[in-house]
Design goal:
single chain; about 325 residues; alpha/beta; Rossmann fold; Dihydrodipicolinate Reductase, domain 2; 2 domains; seven-stranded mixed sheet; six-stranded mixed sheet; 9 helices; binds adenosine-2'-5'-diphosphate; NADP binding
Length: about 325
């Protein structure tokens, strides 16, 4: 049995950690909840018991013998406190981008690169939400056919921008001015997620490109991305255009995805079956549909990939990483 801490327990992803720990059979001894000073002292009910939220300070961390610390309180909190938790013996699973590209920190999607867990040194990074859902079908394609090039176009929900992102959509629908986004998200699409970089990409787009190479262990992949925030509450949708190295038959792609753990193929055009954000919300799997040949190039393939960005894209993936370490994964 393990002692688990959640850092950022009052946030969007933090609450989802609690929900998923309630649902799954995680071998939990004690659960400790941390947030900012603002929330310290407030109480949360977990499995019928009240847990008091604590301020994230070393004094509150050091004597708890924490085995796993699940972080989702932003990059600055991770940079400051992940090493503190690790120094007291915890394995940190960090949902921020702070450590993802650190060469000493594995970046893991359990269905894709579980072997990387072996070389962690106390901190493991959870990939970006839009990266995680893309990795599950792409790893299957890479293993069977090889991949030359990937074009990501994302349609990302406001829940990925935390409580403030959700408020901007809900209040914006009633006519309020945005507080989180630079323009209204209600009735709008913003090709702008995270900050702009000197090369004209956003940091979100570069995260998708670089994290994909790290997770798939392939620096030669050619990848480009456009990441767009859309007025959807939850679940990210992605158009993924892939150029495979080897020829394929479309029936074999359906078969491959049907056999891949973590994927639900949802693709029957006669029945108007294709994945949507509403149907994927609250589910664990990555939904793949609109599977079709890209006729404009040799070995081209188009996919529509939808997943709950707060579950598989964040909290669930982090808990699955902890389960890899406890051996309680199925
Ligand atoms: P709090 O509610 O006390 O501000 P979201 O991504 O949904 O906006 O949530 C952010 C999470 O990070 C919240 O749980 C928030 O706690 C937490 N947080 C913000 N700043 C700090 C901090 N300085 N130390 C610890 N937790 C923090």
């Amino acid at each position: 049995m393990y002692n688990v801490a959640i850092v950022g327990a009052t946030g969007n992803v933090g609450k989802k950690f609690l929900e998923i720990l309630e649902e799954r059979n995680f071998p939990l001894e004690n659960l400790y909840l941390f947030a900012s000073k603002r929330s310290a002292g407030s109480k949360v009910t977990f499995k019928g018991k009240e847990i008091v939220i604590e301020d994230t300070i070393e004094e509150n961390i050091k004597d708890k013998k924490i085995d796993f610390a699940l972080f989702s309180a932003g990059g600055d909190v991770s940079l400051k406190f992940a090493p503190v938790f690790a120094s007291y013996g915890a394995t940190v699973i960090d949902n921020s981008s702070a450590f993802r590209m650190d060469k000493d920190v594995p970046l893991i999607v359990p269905e894709v690169n579980p072997e990387d867990i072996k070389w962690h040194k106390g901190i493991i990074a959870n990939p970006n939400c839009s990266t995680i859902q893309a990795m599950v079908p792409l790893k299957a394609l890479l293993s069977k056919y090889g991949i030359k090039r990937i074009v990501f176009s994302t349609y990302q929900a406001v829940s990925g921008a935390g409580k403030q992102g959700i408020d901007d959509l809900i209040e914006g629908n009633k006519g309020a001015e945005p507080k989180k986004f630079p323009y209204p998200i209600a009735g709008n699409c913003l090709p702008h997620i995270d900050v702009f970089l000197d090369n004209g990409y956003t940091k979100e787009e570069i995260k998708m490109i670089e994290e994909t190479k790290k997770i798939l262990h392939n620096n030669n992949l050619k990848i480009t991305a456009t990441a767009v925030r859309v007025p959807v509450l939850n679940s990210h949708s992605e158009s993924i255009n892939v150029e495979l190295e080897n020829p394929y038959e479309i029936e074999d792609i359906f078969k491959l995805f049907n056999e891949t753990k973590g994927i639900t193929v949802y693709d029957d055009l006669k029945e108007l079956k294709y994945p949507t954000a509403l149907m994927a919300s609250g589910k664990d799997d990555v939904f793949v549909g609109r599977i079709r040949r890209d006729f404009s190039i040799a070995n081209g393939l188009n996919l529509w990939v939808v997943s709950d960005n707060i579950r598989k894209g964040a909290a669930l993936n982090a808990i699955q990483i902890a389960e890899l370490l406890t051996g309680s994964d199925d």
